[in-house]
């Protein structure tokens, strides 16, 4: 029996530093209304969807950044999203900055069932950027200052999504998409739908050489399409896009099938809903043939993947003597 689902990436345009959460949440509710009109069953919002991409702003006193974080979900500010989900019967993925009751800080994503229950939570593992103010950079990227490395691994859960019955869902957050290891850990749990939000500057701010503008988008798509293909999963990748207080983030949100094909792509750098009708049965071809892990993986040759972090120099070749 076909396991069909109508899914959406709800791309957000820019959120300025001075704008409160109610501005973003109002826009997100409008996107959920549009999703309802198009028969969507699950909506994916971006990483850190409720505020501007605040890791670009340096705070000497780390606690001065705490106002960007959520201490509960739902909260007064996010309640309208939960109400819209219930009203329209739509599940949603939300990226947000999480401060736990113990005072720990994470870059987090949650998948919320239309009933309002949090089905799955993920905390970002690959934190890009730096922890201290970097005078060389034109714009700071202080994720390593404001967040701890996620402590939940890469979980996948089998849970009801829309009319498709149970679906194996997993999540990645922004920079995670560039790491094949992260995708593979999801693939090893038979993931069928990866939800992924991102905030990616259009320019590489490291200033260590020029990276062409269009290549930034290529690298994002390349990573997502490869991750989907190599792990036989659908992916919904949603940007926060546009110019936030003079700093540009690219859009180009995409929905990708298990063959690595782009099914839908955003064309603006603003609030935009893109949708696709997916058949989860499509995941079977890859996982039963070329990416049948049980039949073809060779873990005895992969020791370096978990045993080593940085790259080592290779053994130097020497010509045979005599
Ligand atoms: N938010 C986030 O993780 N952004 C990073 C920017 C890194 S610059 C290469 C990303 O990987 O998109």
UniProtKB/TrEMBL annotation:
InterPro entries: Aliph_Amidase/BUP, C-N_Hydrolase, C-N_Hydrolase_sf. GO terms for molecular function: hydrolase activity, acting on carbon-nitrogen (but not peptide) bonds, in linear amides. Keywords: Hydrolase. Residues 5-280 form the CN hydrolase domain. It comes from the Bacteria. This is N-carbamoyl-D-amino-acid hydrolase. It comes from Muricoccus nepalensis. The lineage of its organism: Bacteria, Pseudomonadati, Pseudomonadota, Alphaproteobacteria, Acetobacterales.
